[in-house]
Design a protein that fits this description.
Blueprint lengths: L6 H8 L31 H4 L1 H14 L22 H6 L3 H4 L5 E5 L5 H15 L5 E5 L9 E3 L2 H10 L5 E6 L6 E7 L8 E9 L2 E3 L6 H7 L7 H7 L13 E3 L11 E4 L6 H12 L6 E8 L2 H6 L3 E7 L15 H24 L7 H15 L7
Helix pairs in contact: 3-12, 6-7
Length: about 375
């Protein structure tokens, strides 16, 4: 199952702006239910948001007699996909059926002592995987859009390897030219034939629009939402800040579909259909040891998403996944915690069932080791596009 490589769509995907560019092609209209551009809690530090979940975890650990019970929720993933998981290893759990929905990819271990040899090896692996430029490069280990970049040519890939930590693994993946992106959170209890899509989050790439007068810097600083995220956008687009965009010309501020990197998340649960759920039932049953997690997908348009067709999986995330619709600016803090408590209650239940079937979860020491390594390596990744 190959994604379309239409030249015009690729041009739309790899460039932040040009005269004929359109924004949010294929996505439902980006509408707000309230006057808020950003929810007051939307960019709180993660440890603040998750403090109540920490205490819920302790309570559930006492009830289920084990701190690491949730790690058994996905027996096929390293530590259930909590920390230190490999994107490549997650992909490799997919069987022949599920694999056809995953965007083609390959992986390379970076050797900074011989970047040219690493780039040459990458070219060989890309050819075997059916990849051609432009592609996406991203860390094999990491979350929240760390180190994701569009690579347009071999010279750029060489630069990426130069900036990437030595002996760490890079994923090279087909650039899917469809702009629409969603996070689809799927849950299925062991022994059940049908699961549920617990959350569907629409991920909008943020834009500002030219007026023929103001520079990009001014447009960003004046925008109700982008103006509150200048620490993300001004550095990323430093080479364009003095440009004046034509009237109505869009400029994309973020490519990676990560909330912490500037993407706009909206609650898309209204788009969940029987057809979409059936499609993910079939995919998830063909992923070894997977019951709980989120798929990051690109899709052609709203209609194809609802039908469960013309979609490509770009990442499979385990138990660390969020029901990301909670970061919709129209959400309330009550809704955030109602969703998170439901999510983690279910996580413990699934983990307990798999534990009763004999699965041995990892240890607290392994969690700490994985977290420390993930944080340490993550600080060395290249900037996200």
């Amino acid at each position: 199952m190959q994604g379309s490589r239409d030249d015009q769509l690729i041009e739309q995907a790899i460039k932040p702006t040009f005269a004929a560019k359109r924004s949010h092609v294929g996505m439902p209209p980006l509408v707000k239910k309230s006057s808020r551009s950003i929810a007051y809690f939307e960019f709180w530090p993660t440890f603040i948001v998750y403090l109540p979940i920490f205490f819920l975890w302790l309570y559930k650990a006492l009830r289920f007699r084990g701190l690491t019970v949730p790690l058994s929720a996905n027996p096929g993933f390293h530590l259930g996909g909590l920390v230190g998981e490999s994107k490549a290893e997650n992909f490799l759990q997919a069987g022949l059926y599920a694999s056809q929905f995953i965007a083609p990819w390959c992986r390379i271990i970076n050797n900074r002592s011989d970047i040219q040899a690493t780039t040459k090896l990458a070219a060989k692996e890309m050819k075997e995987a059916g990849l051609s430029y432009p592609i996406i490069a991203k860390p094999d280990m990491g979350c929240r859009g760390e180190g994701v970049r569009i690579i347009r040519a071999s010279a750029q890939l060489e630069e990426y390897f130069q900036d990437f930590p030595n002996r760490e693994t890079v994923i090279l993946q087909e650039l899917i030219p469809w702009e629409p992106e969603a996070g689809i959170f799927y849950i299925r209890h062991p022994g059940e034939s049908r699961g549920q899509i617990f959350s569907l989050t629409l991920k909008y790439q943020p834009y500002v629009y030219g007026n023929g007068v103001d520079t990009l810097r001014t447009l960003i600083e004046a925008d109700p939402r982008a103006g509150k995220l200048t620490h993300l956008y001004l550095k990323r687009h430093k080479n364009y800040l003095d440009d004046v965009l034509e009237q109505g010309q869009p400029f994309r501020l973020a490519f990676a579909g990560s909330h912490s990197r500037g993407a706009i998340f909206k609650d898309g649960r209204r788009l969940i259909t029987e057809e979409l759920t059936t499609a993910f039932d079939q995919i998830c049953k063909d992923i070894d040891g997977f019951y709980f997690g989120r798929f990051d997908v690109r899709f052609a348009n709203e209609h194809s998403l609802k039908e469960g067709k013309e979609l490509r999986i770009v990442e499979i995330n385990g138990i660390s996944s969020e029901a990301a619709h909670i970061w919709d600016a129209d959400s309330s803090l009550t809704e955030v915690y109602r969703t998170l408590f439901s999510q983690y209650n279910t996580l413990f239940e699934i983990g307990a069932v798999n534990r009763s079937k004999g699965h041995k979860a990892g240890s607290v020491a392994q969690i700490i080791k994985g977290l420390v390594r993930e944080l340490w390596v993550g600080r060395q990744y290249p900037d996200t596009e």
